[in-house]
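Teaching assistant's notes for section 4

Start the section by putting this record on the projector. Ask students to predict, before seeing the second block, whether DUF618-domain-containing protein will look compact or extended. Collect guesses on the board.
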Amino acid sequence: MAYTDDAVLAKLSALNESHDSIATAAQWIMFHRRHADRTVQLWLQRLKDSPSHKRLVLIYLANEVAQQTKARHKEDFVVAFSPVLAEATATAYKGATSDVQSKLRRVVQVWRERHIFESPIQEAIEARLQELDSQRGTSKASGAFGGSIFGSSLAPSSLPAELRDLLKPQQDVSKQVLPVKSSLSTANAEYEKLINSKDALPAPPVYAAKLSGLLKHLASAENAVNESVKARKELVDALLKILETNRNALETELSQQKLLAERRAEVDVKRQEVELEIIRGMGVPEGNDHHRSPQDGGHSASPEQEPERPEMEALTPPSGGDADDLDFYNNDVVTPQNGHGLQAPVQEQHQKPTFPSAAPGIEMLSNIASQYQSVPVALNGSHKRRRVDSGDDFPDLGGDDGIDADVAEMIRKESRGP
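Reveal the predicted structure now:
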């Protein structure tokens, strides 16, 4: 079958997941390797227009063609696939089921293990897949797929405030990785093929057309690099800003650290001085004795205990005091119905203590107070008896020696009663 666009599209449309179908189409495509660039363009267009399961089959076809040509050292298709493979893989990966995505990741992993494509192309493919995972908010990076310093599923709100300014510049740099690597790979390959080739130069019109195409590739690569440089400058500026902030904070904290160390040493010295003063004030001797009595000329190691409270004398009235007064005023004579009163028992006499002979007047008054008698009192026909207490009445003294006559007469009158 002659090579035409329709023939290529027919081969691509007839593909299925069987190995025979993929191998047959790959052999026909490799046979027409002179049209590698055109075949790859048609393949990419068909992949974009196909459903998800069909895209996986087209990736399998590209894998088969690339590995076979790599093994035969005919790298026409490897070079042709390099600029567009990252975009094609991302297109097939986006919106696919988890099963299809796992199979696509396995194919990309095989490319890395077998070194089918150059390292920049391989890294660009992995970066696009990682970016899609980041947009979906799920990190499925494994094996050789590495994530950014922020993590693919890390939300901006979960980042520290100091690092949030780095998020956008870092994302811009990541987005420029794929275009730069793809355009650089294409431009370098075309340049080597056209300028450094040892083959004979083509005819001038053809050579001029190829040079025009090379200029376009070089301009595209230059623009991609310029965008990447701009993004990286913004990232570096943000990093320098954070670095400067942390450097100033570090200097401040170092000054605080030095000041705190000096203050701690100063306080420690003061504490030791105070402890020594306390020990000197307590007077602890060097020996094993920890206490010394004041008679020995020393001080007690322990503070003197506060003296106990003195015991207060009870305020209990003496016997014969208030109780006797109550009897004196309130004890009635039991009066029977026949009108004869019964006298209460004679109150017992209280023996008063004797004082020294040096005070005869006090002794005399004491003797007078020790004698008392019951005086019956008739009140409304009833008889009462009360005790003559010391200091209330004057008993019969039995003699008037040393007493004035008027006083004696008054005492006798008082003793007779009214």
